[in-house]
Amino acid sequence: MNRFSILQDKKQCYVCGSSIIHTHEVYYGKNRKKSIEDGCCVYLCPRHHNMSNDGIHFNKDLDLKVKKEMEKRWLEYYNKTIDDFIKRYGKNYI
Ligand SMILES: [Zn+2]
Ligand SMILES: [Zn+2]
């Protein structure tokens, strides 16, 4: 399935704007497939993805920040409630 982002139009790193990008599933682990279905993906450069300690897979603050921003966008984009989000992803981040 083609991965897309409901949070970003341009394929640029969400953190620094670099155009060399990976696609990251915001709710990874057991929610990875749902992230892909819902477009809960962000574009990140290798450094801000998983190639350095600044990367979202290692930087908990960045991970949580993007999870929050994506949840807010998901609620708006799909016109859903926080309860709907919890049902789908198991947790509320905002
Ligand atoms: Zn970056
Ligand atoms: Zn990732």
Give an account of the 3D structure.
This protein has helices spanning 32-38, 46-49, 60-77, 82-89; strands at 22-25, 41-44. It is mainly alpha-helical and 94 residues long. It has one domain (22-88). A two-stranded antiparallel ribbon has the order 1-2. The longest helix has 18 residues, at 60-77. Bound molecules: zinc ion (2 copies). One zinc ion binds at residues 13, 15-16, 18, 44-45, 47-48.
Which keywords apply here?
94 residues, two-stranded antiparallel ribbon, mainly alpha, 4 helices, binds zinc ion, single chain, globular
Summarize the structure.
The chain has 94 residues and is mostly helical. It has four helices and two strands, in the order βαβααα.
Q: pLDDT below 50 for ≥5 consecutive residues: which ranges? A: none
Structural class call reads mainly alpha
| Bound small-molecule species | zinc ion
Overall mean pLDDT stands at: 97
Number of structural units classed as domains: 1
Fraction of residues in β-strands: 5-15%
Query: What percentage of residues falls in helices of 4 or more residues?
Result: 25-40%
Alpha-carbon Rg, integer: 13 Å
Largest sheet: 2 strands, antiparallel
Number of helices: 4
Shape: globular
Secondary structure layout plus pairing:
Blueprint: E1 22-25, H1 32-38, E2 41-44, H2 46-49, H3 60-77, H4 82-89
Bound molecules: zinc ion (2 copies).
